[in-house]
Design a protein that fits this description.
Layout (H helix, E strand, L loop, with lengths): L2 E4 L2 E8 L19 E3 L7 E2 L5 E2 L24 E9 L10 E6 L2 E2 L1 E6 L2 E6 L6 E4 L9 E9 L3 E3 L5 E3 L6 H5 L2 E2 L3 E6 L2 E11 L4 E10 L9 E9 L10 E6 L12 E7 L14 E9 L2 E10 L4 E4 L2 E4 L2 E3 L1 E6 L9 H14 L3 E4 L7 H9 L2 E5 L14 H18 L5 E8 L7 H5 L2 H11 L5 E4 L13 E4 L15 E6 L7 H8 L7 H21 L4 E4 L15 E2 L14 E2 L22 H10 L2 E5 L5 E3 L4 E9 L5 E11 L2 E12 L3 E9 L8 E11 L2 E13 L14 E4 L2 H10 L4 E2 L13 E4 L9 H11 L3 E4 L12 E2 L31 E2 L2 E2 L6 E3 L6 E7 L11 E8 L4 E5 L3 H4 L4 H16 L8 E4 L5 H9 L5 E3 L12 E4 L1 H7 L1 H12 L3 E4 L7 H8 L3 E8 L2 E3 L33 E7 L4 E6 ...
GO molecular function: hydrolase activity, hydrolyzing O-glycosyl compounds
InterPro entries: Beta-gal/glucu_dom_sf (IPR036156), Galactose-bd-like_sf (IPR008979), GH (IPR017853), GH2_Domain-Containing (IPR051913), Glyco_hydro_2_AS (IPR023232), Glyco_hydro_2_cat (IPR006103), Glyco_hydro_2_N (IPR006104), Ig-like_fold (IPR013783)
Pfam family, one: Glyco_hydro_2_C
Length: 1336
């Protein structure tokens, strides 16, 4: 009755080149010699308007979409003509059968011609086109089928940009051109059934089926059609006894209806087997169209009996609450168009604890749903209304019309799949051009969905802002950028459809969770992101969030494969599915069934296990996160127990606690647990006393009935409580200035410590250790001045955690941090501590991460002999990575000070790490050697590059020698040498310099270039080679003394990471490597085999290449170059440094400063001799955006000065992505180079954190502005109009907006908040983004 045959195979192809090709069929057709394999895209890459290629990375010969071997020239063809002929067999036209062409996917816009007759124009690249051709076909005749494929129509928007009016979805839709899914000729009887709709209700035990009668002509009065329904298990033979059957008469059309009739069944069915993820039972429903007793048509559909609905914040599947743990990924074409790929994905998801897949950004081929039905995978079915690309004119009538048609088609195609539980209307349309007009049509599109399918909830992925609360069926958030869990009112379910930062992977985002190890390799950074996401998932589950989808298991948690190009054997081209010729290397993360035997289904990377542990449906998750305890109190721990199954379970948990291997506690808990229920389990035990750090291991076994479902092992550290009172030997007198509480803590550790007032400091002897207690108030600056003077006289200062007090010109930034980390833990202060000790000082976890234990930190100093003992960061999108230090040491020519910002005293009695750190600080501050500065000389051309770098950038104190003078060497203990001048002096000078080192001198040879090997060989008495090998990334050997204090942060030259709003540059650290035969230690070597340079310099940021670039860099890893070498010569020391001397690079300045300070050099930094001025108290940072000429300035102004203005944590707003501006260190101003004639908007969220300030109190003051432009200032929506610029700051958040205009060539503006008395406001925190309020 129904016949079809596939038109896949080789089609002739004529590319159409040109900027705006149309879809008319050319009169003259000249086909290429090579044919196109339908289905496929003839394009595998293209050049974007920016000029950057998509789909290939030429330097690696990487082209993951080039699977058919088409000519590269075809990539330039935005349009083309595809042609083939076909003949219909007699069986397809016998009687009065109707003939159709069906195209399952044509990209983008297309025109279909049959025998040069235009029969269809199609503008939906993802959903099937079915067009009747009965009138123009006949059996045996040769028919010519032409399909002209081109680009979607474009319109020009006010900005001058061209935007499409079609639905491209994500990258595949922009890349692909052609017939990318199967093509069929189909025939049906003249009277046939169509548009079958199946609805099942578990609550009513009911099956509802509707279908429409399709006729070649009108329904006649004497037509007596009936329809017989039969339902069988899907795996039963068609002739077997049905589980359910019924017959119904056709309902004739009423006035105003279409000419065709329809049929409906409403059947009670109490005994149906339910479909669910554990038991995805499928039925096959057959409708037989009967004309009298004769069957004239059969239509079949597979379905599952299930029902999905919401009850408050919960999804209910068949009456059972279900939490969604999801995955999603971009569709990318041919290599993902196999059933094996889909099964690999879904089965991997099940291993990971994922029960739901969002078919992201566009409708996927229908077998993604067929297989989900079979595998029991829940599906969020999404349209191609994909705003992330911002490629559309969303307010254009054609775009809106295309959206409505597309939604209708998707529903008609997919509504009978039991796996589909949610309709996703769109993705991230929140900032597209034409947003406000588009969102007016969203309610109507939602109504369309409900009319076609009232059984499933509707979600707008990432677009809560576009829909009123009362119309929201499911709240959707992406990446915490547009709201928080705390704002969820639990009226409807909350789903995070995307979460996690893997697309933005960089060390700056990851170090907050794994420390400075994140800088070593991309996979270490991946671990950090996985740790961050693990914590979020645990928090979200604890808060009852209904759905969480980390982005993503299918790609970012995998390793790319295969490791080589895989040629594929010939295949039958006229069968369904693409027939690639090759699988390019590293083009897959999931096996698609085309790889040779031996390849696994997938290869996990380090993120997978961490994330799958957090997604596990049956699990125990610790509810407290601190892991260190004192031994003088019982230890209480609680755990969240999850049963994300579909069944009630008898749960038994057996806890065992062992201390140093000995069992100290055993306890069992038993309870019943409902599906999707979270329960809490708590235990307590008393540890045995210890005399040194000990290990406690807790093991918990979770049973369902008698089956072990989960095993948890945790290690805790136990410390002796006597650490809080055991005296510390500091070897010198100590004095304390500060409050009572802190003094009692310090006095317990230093019984001889004397308490002094600020006025007494001037009388202290320099050998005294001065300890400043925490959070001191120094409104008049006298205490700071006294401590500066004491350190200048040779004294030692230990400054404990402060809110605004710091020494000299050292700037303190008021913002919280929840982790600190070191490149090396060899520093005496850190004795007994490691990476895992400087996080989780508190039990609790917040949505944004652990609770902070640092309230302010020092901006990383550039000049001076500083040693940042610890670093801390706020993530790149928060503020730019590890730009702060919470613990640093400074050595002047005579004195030293150590400044700590970790909250040691607040946590001293509770957190062993705080106690250990305070003890370490006291001991080190007391007994650390105060090495005298050495006299330094430099063989460097006066006024040359090296001289200017050393003297001006480093402020090194030294004497200059323009020419080599042997007799002057004895005047110096440290000598810096330009290799060019040494080469000019010749071999005798090299020999003299060698003798100088052997007699105890210290020599540093500055960066050498090829051609200078001979003199270095003479100096070292061995062969030296220099080769060009630029590096942005180094690692230090901290076992070498001169490497002490070199931060991995400074050894990483990539500052402008992907999507960072910071105005910084990526800078190489060295241009040439150096090698010396045998004997020299490598102090700094290059880090090779990472993808960082490709990501951040090459700007290869496309998601399809992220994982591949990691493998490609592993594959092409070159030997690591050497950049700083060191060796002992007799009693002296010799270093060769290839580090670039870049005055504009803070990192180069810090690296050389630390390297030379470790050799005894001194610096004229004048840090303690000067007080902080406006440059240190000015507003620290703002976000900036110009107002282009095509934008309505008044509307943009209204947006920014709104008292409720907010900015998400990507800096993304209605008018574009804002750029971060950081104050210039020299004068505290913000500068914008080449600002043009446009007006600029600057924004900052200013938090007033003055202690004791009530929630409704305000502080009055003045905003001092120094600018070379006109400006308007708005505070909390109010314009500051008086000349004194008096302002009022309320407790908490204040919104500061500055509009600048008429700037000079470089815009400059500085803003300083002053009190009414004219002093600096000291309790301010500056933030760039905000998530505490519902964003606009």
């Amino acid at each position: 009755m129904r016949d079809s045959f596939c038109l896949n195979g080789e089609w002739s192809f004529m590319p159409l080149y040109g900027s705006e090709p149309d879809i008319g069929l050319p009169d003259e057709l000249i086909y290429e010699e090579m044919k196109v394999r339908v289905p496929s895209s003839w394009r595998s890459a293209y050049v974007r308007p920016s000029g950057k290629p998509f789909g290939e990375i030429p330097e690696y010969d990487y082209a993951p979409f080039d699977v058919f071997g088409y000519p590269k020239a075809w990539n330039k063809a935005d349009a083309g003509v595809l042609h083939r002929t076909f003949r219909l067999p007699d069986s397809m036209t016998a009687g009065d059968k109707r003939v159709f062409l069906r195209f399952d996917g044509i990209m983008q816009k297309a025109a279909v011609y049959l025998d040069r007759r235009l029969i269809a124009i199609w503008e939906d690249g993802y959903l099937p086109l079915r067009v009747e051709v009965s009138a123009w076909t006949k059996a045996g005749a040769e028919h010519h089928l032409h399909v002209v494929c081109g680009s979607f129509d474009k319109v020009t928007i006010p900005s001058g940009q061209k935007k499409i009016t079609g639905l491209a979805g994500s990258w595949f839709g922009s890349l692909a051109r052609g017939i990318w899914q199967d093509v069929y000729v189909e025939s049906r009887p003249a009277a046939s059934l169509a548009d079958m709709t199946i609805r099942t209700s578990v609550r009513e035990s009911r099956l509802e089926v509707d279908a429409r009668l399709e006729l070649a002509g009108p329904l006649l009065e004497d037509d007596s059609y009936k329809v017989r329904l039969e339902v069988r298990d899907a795996d039963r033979e068609p002739g077997s006894a049905p589980a359910l059957s019924a017959t119904a008469s056709l309902r004739r059309p009423e006035d105003g209806e279409e000419r065709d009739g329809c049929v409906s069944f409403r059947l009670d069915w109490a005994g149906a087997k339910l479909w669910n993820p554990d038991e995805p039972h499928l039925y096959r429903l057959q409708l037989a169209l009967l004309d009298g007793g004769r069957v004239v048509d059969l239509a079949e559909e597979r379905f599952g009996f299930r029902e999905i609905w919401t009850e408050g914040p919960r999804f209910m599947l068949n009456g059972i609450p279900v939490n969604l743990r999801g995955d999603s990924w971009h569709f990318q074409g041919a290599l993902q168009q196999t059933e094996d790929y889909v099964r690999s994905w879904y089965r991997m998801c099940k291993e990971a604890g994922v029960n739901c897949v969002r078919l992201h950004a566009e409708p996927h081929p229908s077998y993604y749903l067929d297989i989900a039905d079979e595998e029991g995978m829940l599906i969020v079915d999404e349209t191609a209304i994909y705003g992330s690309s911002k490629s559309m004119a969303a307010d254009h009538p054609d775009f809106i019309a295309n959206c409505k048609k597309h939604v209708h088609r998707l529903l008609m195609r997919d509504r009978n799949h039991p796996s589909v539980i949610l309709w996703s209307l769109q993705n991230e349309m929140r900032w597209v051009d034409g947003r406000d007009e588009f969102k007016r049509h969203i309610p109507r599109m939602m109504d369309m969905i409900r009319e076609l399918d009232p059984t499933r909830p509707i979600i707008l992925e990432g677009d809560n802002r576009l829909l009123p609360k009362d119309m929201t069926e499911v709240e959707s958030l992406h990446y915490n950028i547009d709201g928080t869990i705390a704002q969820w009112d639990r009226r409807v379910p909350l789903v995070f459809g995307e979460h996690g930062g893997w697309w933005y992977v960089c060390p700056q985002n990851s170090s907050m969770y794994v420390g400075l190890a994140a800088y070593r390799h991309a996979e270490e950074a991946v671990k950090g992101l996985a740790e961050k996401e693990r914590l979020f998932v645990e928090y979200a589950r604890r808060q009852g969030v209904t759905g969480i989808s980390s982005f993503n298991f299918a790609h970012y948690f995998m390793r790319a494969m295969p490791e080589r190009d895989i040629p594929l054997p010939p295949a039958a081209l006229d069968t369904p599915g693409p027939k690639p010729k090759v699988i390019p290397k590293y083009s897959l993360t999931l096996n698609n069934g085309m790889l040779p035997d031996g390849y696994p289904s997938y290869i996990k990377n380090p993120a997978f296990d961490r994330m799958s542990a957090s997604f596990k449906p049956v699990t125990i998750i610790p509810a407290e996160y601190n892991r260190s305890f004192f031994d003088d109190a019982p230890i209480s721990r609680s755990f969240d127990v999850y049963n994300d199954t579909l069944h009630r379970r008898l749960v038994r948990i057996v806890f065992e606690v062992r201390q140093d291997g000995r069992l100290v506690h055993r306890e069992a808990l038993v309870f019943e647990q409902q599906p999707a229920e979270r329960r809490s389990a708590a235990i307590q035990w008393t540890p045995a006393p210890v005399s040194e750090q000990s290990v406690i291991r807790l093991c918990a076994l979770l049973y369902h009935e008698e089956e072990i479902m989960h095993e948890l092992e945790l290690d805790y550290k136990l410390h002796p409580a006597l650490l809080r009172t055991e005296p510390v030997d500091i070897g010198r007198p100590a004095a304390y200035v500060g409050g009572d509480r802190d003094f009692h803590i310090v006095r317990a550790l230093l019984p001889a410590c004397e308490r002094v007032g600020g006025g007494d400091i001037i009388r202290l002897e320099p050998e005294t250790l001065l300890i400043a207690g925490s959070k001191l108030d120094d409104a008049d600056g006298e205490l700071e001045k006294a401590m500066n003077g004491f350190a200048l006289r040779g004294g030692r200062v230990l400054l404990l955690e402060q809110l605004h007090l710091s020494l000299g010109k050292l700037a303190l930034s008021r913002q919280p941090f929840f982790r600190a980390h070191a490149g090396s833990y060899d520093h005496p202060v850190l004795q007994g501590l490691g990476d895992d000790d400087l996080m989780f000082w508190h039990e609790e976890l917040r949505e944004e991460g652990p609770l902070p234990f640092i309230s302010a930190a020092f901006e990383m100093p550039v000049q001076g002999s500083f040693h940042p003992i610890l670093n801390c960061g706020a993530g790149d999108f928060g503020d730019g990575g590890d730009l702060w230090s919470p613990l640093l040491e400074y050595r002047g020519e005579r004195g030293l000070f150590i400044a700590n910002q970790l909250e040691l005293l607040d946590n001293f009695h509770r957190v062993p790490q705080a106690c250990l750190l305070l003890r370490g600080l006291l001991a080190y501050a007391g007994i650390a050697d105060a090495a005298a500065a050495v006299r330094t000389g430099a063989l460097a051309k006066a006024g040359g590059h090296a001289d200017l770098f050393l003297r001006n950038a480093l402020r090194l104190k030294y004497d200059t020698m323009d020419v080599f003078e042997i007799e002057r060497l004895e005047n110096y203990e440290l000598l810096l040498v330009e290799p060019r001048l040494l080469a000019e002096a010749g071999a005798p000078a090299a020999s003299a310099l060698r003798r100088y080192a052997q007699c105890g001198g210290r020599v540093v040879v500055l960066a050498a270039e090829p051609g200078q090997e001979a003199v270095l060989s003479a100096l070292l008495d061995r062969s030296v080679s220099i080769r060009e090998q630029e590096t942005f990334h180094l690692e230090a050997d901290y076992a070498i003394p001169e490497a002490r204090g070199l931060s991995p942060l400074d050894l990483f030259g990539f500052d402008k990471v992907f999507l960072s709003p910071r105005e910084v540059a990526n800078r190489p650290l060295a241009a040439h490597g150096i090698e010396a035969t045998h004997g020299m230690s490598v102090l700094c070597s290059g880090v090779e085999g990472t993808a960082w340079k490709d990501y951040f310099v090459g700007q290869h940021t496309d998601e399809y290449s992220r994982r591949a670039l990691i493998e490609l860099n592993r594959e092409t890893e070159r030997p690591a170059g050497h950049y700083v070498l060191a060796e002992s010569l007799g009693e002296g020391r010799l270093l060769l440094s290839q580090l670039l001397m870049e005055p504009a690079s803070d990192k180069a300045v810090r690296l050389y400063t630390k390297l030379l300070a470790n050799l005894g050099a001194s610096f004229d930094d004048k840090l303690l001799a000067a007080a902080k001025g406006d440059e240190a108290w000015a507003v620290e940072k703002v976000m900036a955006l110009p107002c282009p000429s095509h934008v309505d300035f008044e509307a943009m102004k209204a947006y920014y000065i709104d008292p409720a203005f907010s900015l998400n944590n990507l800096g993304e707003g209605l008018y574009g992505w804002m750029m971060k501006k950081e104050r210039v260190r020299e004068d505290g101003s913000f500068r914008i180079a080449n600002p043009g004639r446009e007006r600029w908007f600057l924004s900052c969220f200013v938090y007033m954190l003055e202690p004791g300030l009530g929630p409704y109190e305000i502080r009055r003051g003045r905003l001092a502005v120094d600018a070379n432009c006109d400006y308007e200032i708005y505070m909390n929506g109010c314009k500051i109009i008086d000349q004194e610029q008096r302002i009022s700051l309320k407790a908490g958040i204040n919104r500061l907006i500055i509009i600048v205009s008429d700037p000079e060539e470089t815009l400059r503006i500085r803003m300083v908040f002053l009190t009414e008395e004219g002093s600096y406001m000291r309790h301010l925190q500056y933030r760039l983004t905000i998530d505490e309020v519902e964003p606009k």
